[in-house]
UniProtKB/TrEMBL annotation:
GO biological process, alphabetically ordered: methylation
Gene3D superfamilies with a match to the protein in the record: Vaccinia Virus protein VP39
Region of interest (Disordered), residue spans: 1-20
Organism of this sequence: Streptomyces flavidovirens
Protein name as annotated: Class I SAM-dependent methyltransferase
Amino acid sequence: MASRTSPARPVGAVTRGTTNPNRLRRMDRWIAAAHGPELRRSSDPVAVDLGYGAAPWTAVELLGRLRTAAPATEVVGIEIEPARVTAAKPYERLGLAFRHGGFEVPLPDNRRPALIRAANVLRQYDEGEVAAVWARLCGRLAPGGLLVEGTCDEIGRRHVWVALGVEGPRTVTFATRLGSLERPSDLAERLPKALIHRNVPGEPVHAFLRDFDRAWAAAAPYASLGARQRWIKAVRDLSADWPLADGERRWRQGEVTVNWAALQPRTG
């Protein structure tokens, strides 16, 4: 992205722009399930794909997936690199548009988005910059809006994201393709910037992944029933000690969502 100081320019820094079709499917499905009711209730259900990258696939896919839950949803892809916006323009259609911008989230007619999805955008930033970016993005949300910010691998097998409302962070979700998982702590490499440097002894996210690995090991006998049953058993046992914010219906998808307060970094 361009200069972070000039008010005439988009706010942020240019990312590598790496993207692939279907990369964000796990995140999209979770958003549709968790935030679909709010999008249906919204009088202006506009969602932003912030920093969609060198190709517009993720914005195109987001529109299709959200409309399964809220048919009136519109999607605006926002990119700070002008050439990427130009390349995306041929994909525009009713309900899908692309604009030049950054963390200021420019929308026409001063619209406020019901959803901002920022995937693989903050990975290049310093940890100390994350809180200010979160606050800025949450400040652009409509009442009842949701910010989803996180990281995934190149083909969408492993994701970790934080969900935030206007009041701040709410939950952290870990999602994976179960057939490719050796142990839950493999997801540590996809922790978002706010947590990735906190995966060290003494930090809550490290303790959570340690306990998850132990529960996964204890659930090894369930592997004969398949990776999904082993995951469900491990997560059910994990729920005895950690405040999970979802249930078995989501666990079956290879997901587990934890209250942010249980994983937030220690201060000092």
